[in-house]
Amino acid sequence: MALDSVDIPVATIDRLFARIEARRDDLVALARDLIRLPTVNPPGEAYRPCAELIGERLRGRGFAIEYLRGAGAPGDSDRHPRTNVVARIEGRGPGRCVHFNGHIDVVEPGQGWTVDPFAGIVRDGRLYGRGACDMKGGIAASILAVEAILDESIAFPGAIEISGTVDEESGGLAGVAWLAGRGYFSRPRVDHVIIPEPLNVDCVCLGHRGVWWAEIEMKGRIGHGSMPFLGVSAVRGMAAFLAYVECELYPALDKRRTRMPVIPEGARASTLNYNSIHGGLAEGWAGVPSPLVADSCRLVIDRRFLVEEKLDDVKQEIVELLERVKRERPGIDYDLREIMTFHPTMTEPDAPVVRALGAEIARVLGRPATHVASPGTYDQKHIARIGHLHDCVAYGPGILELAHQPDEFVVIDDMIASAKVMAATALRLLGGWD
Question: Which backbone phi and psi does 253 adopt, to 5 degrees?
Fold first, then answer.
């Protein structure tokens, strides 16, 4: 009989779930404490205090704790050290290891909030705050799930790990990627990984689309603003490129569809976003601007591509449009700088962690789990490509569409439900309980 098909004794589950229900207030308090640490990235504020909040709590429960700085990784500095925490507790003997990994960084709050984004307001069964959904509510649920197993004195074999890692919102290079390069997400240390990203409480997320970020600099020739015909406007050159994208590339992308179960529905297509655009005079000046023809215009693009697409083709269709602008507009040139590339990743639907989560979602929620894929990348990409560990998925309590939004929240009942699912899934994967 396969390990992930073995049922846990009903009496054990009943006690475990009752204990999680009884600790509802503790779960909310932990999530609030995490939210109240404004771990905004960039630049990477409050990473150490947040790592210590997790680490010292778990140290008190018998975990061995390591604080690991992503030294030398992009973004790491003495002012903003990239501090990760990895906690491990050993079971009664040899066996598999289940690892819960959550990123502690959050994006900036932005505008439009009706509550303090770092106060952890509880209202109408919801916990509000930046990171409540993505993904401090999920981190808190995973911690409570493991604590409930310990409180029930369930003698599991193997080991359980919990990590709080940095910089997922900016690529994860100082977090999971740095740790994976040092063996923290590889066998024989770890066998199964669950990442409590906000992909909905009844869904198992198998993977994500690919991403290609690039900066395009359109280059012209400076001139006097009263005689623009004596210069070459890089802004106009960029406008021509954008027109080709709008009229030709966007319609082509909209027609492409993937077999991956990506949610929401709009993300089943290829997408392209303009992350930022800057041209002419540098931002931040005060007073009256100079009358200049812009000799530079920079655009950052965020291209999400499908498992059915080839990366070389993704890049080439951008280059072809840039080359057309260069041919048609004398004096215009361009540079293309690649910022970040990750290929699509997807765990097999019959993998042990997928089957175990599916069984426990059905038990807790009374309905079958849905397999989905994420529109954006997350740290599974590093675990697969660097750690070569493919029994890894995302599962957590957050609602996907709330991530990075004003008035972000997590439903408290969903945190309780996901904690139950994660606790029972860990036992199902570890096996050998009494």
Answer: -65, -40
Tokens of 48: 């150490």
* CATH number for the domain running over 3-208+345-430: 3.40.630.10
pTM of the shown model: 0.91
- Which single residue is written with the structure tokens 């036992």? 427
- DSSP states of 189-256 as a string? T-SEEEE--SS-TTEEEEEE-EEEEEEEEEE-B-EETT-GGGSB-HHHHHHHHHHHIIIIIHHHHHT-
Angle 268-271-274 from CA coordinates, rounded to 5°: 155
CA distances from 327 to 223, 323, 330 (A): 21, 6, 7
Residues recognised as catalytic:
105, 168
How far is Cα 261 from Cα 200, in angstroms, rounded to an integer? 14
Where does residue 331 fall: left (phi above 0), alpha (psi -120 to 50 degrees), or beta otherwise?
left
Q: In this predicted model, what pLDDT tens digit does every residue of 5-56 receive, in sequence order? A: 456 889 999 999 999 999 999 999 999 999 999 999 999 999 999 999 999 9
Q: Domain 210-342 is of which CATH architecture? A: 2-Layer Sandwich (3.30)
* DSSP bridge pairs for 293: 223
Helices (H), 300-411: 311-328, 352-365, 380-385
First-last CA distance in the chain: 18
- Domain residue ranges in the chain: 3-208+345-430, 210-342
